[in-house]
Amino acid sequence: IARVFLKNPPILLLDEATSALDNESEILVGQSLDKLAKGRTTLTIAHRLTTIQNADRILVLGKDGIEEEGSHAELLAKKGIYYRLWNGLVSGQTL
């Protein structure tokens, strides 16, 4: 991750960049990534919803392609797939 920012690219592609981290480390790295990503187009691929909850736009992919699209708040308001996944996360259910 550090090497990417040394190159100062206008577009970032982060594919499961924090997947191997524990929750506390993910938060710290995520905060740093948010600061370093300012002014750049950033595409983040993640399975952990906490990794993407602050994204401007979230795409929920299913077997047929894009199933839902919106911000965290918009997707929660739709009460669809993302809503069910998020509620499973906050209620402690295994997803």
From TrEMBL:
Signal peptide: none annotated. Keywords: ATP-binding, Nucleotide-binding. InterPro entries: P-loop_NTPase, Type_1_exporter. GO terms for molecular function: ABC-type oligopeptide transporter activity; ATP binding. GO terms for biological process: oligopeptide export from mitochondrion. This is ABC transporter ATP-binding protein. It comes from Candidatus Gemmiger avistercoris. The lineage of its organism: Bacteria, Bacillati, Bacillota, Clostridia, Eubacteriales.
